[in-house]
Amino acid sequence: MLQVGCILNTFIRRADVVKVGCLAQLVNVIAPIMTVPGGPAWRQTTFYPYQFASHYGRGKALQLALDCPGYATDFADKVTYLDISAVETETDGALTLFIVNRNQTETIDLDMALEGFGSRRVIMDKVIEGHGLRDTNSPDQQPVAPKDGSGALVKDDRISAAIAPLSYRMIRLGL
Q1: Which of 68, 148, 51, 73 is nearest to 106 (CA)?
Q2: What are phi and psi of 93, to 5 degrees?
Q3: I need a surface site. Which of 28, 52, 74, 169 has the fewest CB within 10 A?
Q4: Looking at residue 18, what is its pLDDT?
Q5: What's the CA gap between 112 and 114, in Å, rounded?
Q6: What are 18-75's pLDDT values in tens digits?
C-alpha cells in the first residue's frame, strides 16, 4: 500500500511529464480489487491510495519544497522519510496533500507553509496506519482501511500534522 502511495505521488509530482498511468491488473493476482470464484469481492490495501488519487488528485499538481529527515541508500544520499504530493482542485480550490511516512518506527511532524493559498481549514483527513508492511485484506476481514485522521491543524497559513510511522495519509484543505 505504501509503495502504491509513493508511486502515485511520483506521478502527481511529475504530471508535467507523465500524461497517462495504467494499472496492469484490475482484479486478482496483484490487484486493488480481489475476488474468489463464486464468492465476494473485496478491497485490497492498495485500493485506497488509488481511490484517493482518482477522486482528489485531479487539478493542478503543485511543486513542494520539502525539508525533513531521511536516510541514505545505494542510489541516493538522502531519501526523505515523508513522500508528499499536492494537488489544487480547480473546481472548488481545495488543496489535497497525499503523504506517506516511510519511517518504520517514528512519527514525523509535518509543518508546511501554505504560501499563496490564503486562509484554509481541514475539510477531510483520512489515514491508514498501524499495520505491518505485509498485512493484507481478505474476503473475511479488511483490517487495512482508511480511518478518520485527527490532529491536522491549519494556523497562520501553515499546516501541521503528526504523520505516523509506515502510514498513508490524505489531508484536504478547503477555503
Answers
A1: 68
A2: 75, 10
A3: 74
A4: 85
A5: 6
A6: 888 777 665 556 788 888 899 999 999 999 999 999 999 999 999 998 899 999 999 9
Identity of the amino acid at 124:
M
- Model-level pTM? 0.94
Give the CA distances from residue 148 to residues 103, 126, 151, in Å, rounded to whole numbers and listed in that order: 21, 5, 10
In this prediction, residues 2-9 reach a mean pLDDT of 94
Report yes or no: 168 and 53 within 8 Å, Cβ to Cβ.
no
Count of C-beta atoms within a 10 Å radius of residue 114? 16
Identity at 102, one-letter amino acid code: R
Would you put residue 75 in left (φ > 0), alpha (ψ -120 to 50) or beta? alpha
* Domain limits for position 140: 2-174
CATH number at residue 13: 2.60.40.1180
Into how many domains does the chain fold?
1
Closest by Cα among 23, 14, 81 to 47 = 23
